[in-house]
Amino acid sequence: MSRKIIIDTDPGQDDAVAILLALASPEEIEVLGIVAVAGNVGLAQNAINARKVVELSGRTDIPVYAGCARPMRRTLVTAEHVHGDTGLNGPELPDPQVPLQAQHGVDYIIDTLMNAEPKTVTLCTLGPLTNIAMALIKQPEIADRIQEIVMMGGAYFEVGNITPAAEFNIYVDPEAANVVMRCGAPITIQPLDVTHMIQSTPARLDAIKALGNRSGQAVYDMLTFSEGFDLKKYGWIGAPLHDPTVIAYLLQPELFEGRHCNVEIETASELTVGMTVVDYWHVTDRPRNATYLRSGDADGFYKLLTERLARLP
Ligand code: RIB
Ligand code: CA
């Protein structure tokens, strides 16, 4: 039985790889729809990028929606410095022919959860949590109908990437992250603590390029563009690959390890706003509201990713 998912995303090269991994795995994953959110770049461009990736995969049956154009309270912070001016710099992908759905992405999320059997739809979030939070605020009943929220976001042992304390997805909309972390739905977090282990080394990228298909070439071009900022920043032999770990968790959860604990979001302090405060050692009696993953098997991840990309056009 495949798992039904909605992907909420701000593509971004790593988001694109996550979408491709999901669409290459139809036996295990049924992608119901993709919803764009403002994040890496503005909403309109993220929605265009999501449509480009759907067409790259050949799965033009997958509907793409646009959600919220800015965070709940704060001014949008974007990441062109990492992802390029289009948010998907690297490959030359044609302008998308698949349409953008007319329905607002937040309403699509609400309608899908209200119409599906309870606990049968998983939300995979790859960007700021604005759409999910707004759906929870507009229709609180969906909280009990969500099978699981699997999110890329946060950091604790590896600290922040956009500030010393905060990871980008949480930092962009900390109020939204706070709403989501308190909603009561089962939550699994793929933080920087994991993704910094999942490094796209030259050998791993060369294996993807060697697939010889358009998807492999596009992924190679995407990651060799977006890795530049992180290679310079961290001095590693490979840049961390973030968002595809969300999909890999659905496919092979045994690749990752972590524990159920309390995760809270700092929303007040200007110094640490957006920080995920993780009670990993259970030193408080705060509710254990998330499975916080702390490590991942990089070789196993890239074996899975490369095998699945080989299935695409
Ligand atoms: O901090 C990494 C996250 O921020 C990833 O989702 C990347 O796409 C950016 O959105
Ligand atoms: Ca992202």
From TrEMBL:
Residues 5-303 form the Inosine/uridine-preferring nucleoside hydrolase domain. InterPro entries: I/U_nuclsd_hydro_CS, Inosine/uridine_hydrolase_dom, IUNH, Ribo_hydro-like. The keyword Signal does not apply. Gene3D superfamilies: Ribonucleoside hydrolase-like. Keywords: Glycosidase, Hydrolase. It comes from the Bacteria. SUPFAM superfamilies: Nucleoside hydrolase. Pfam families: IU_nuc_hydro. One of its GO terms (molecular function) is uridine nucleosidase activity. The keyword Metal-binding does not apply. One of its GO terms (cellular component) is cytosol. One of its GO terms (biological process) is purine nucleoside catabolic process. This is Nucleoside hydrolase. It comes from Devosia aurantiaca.
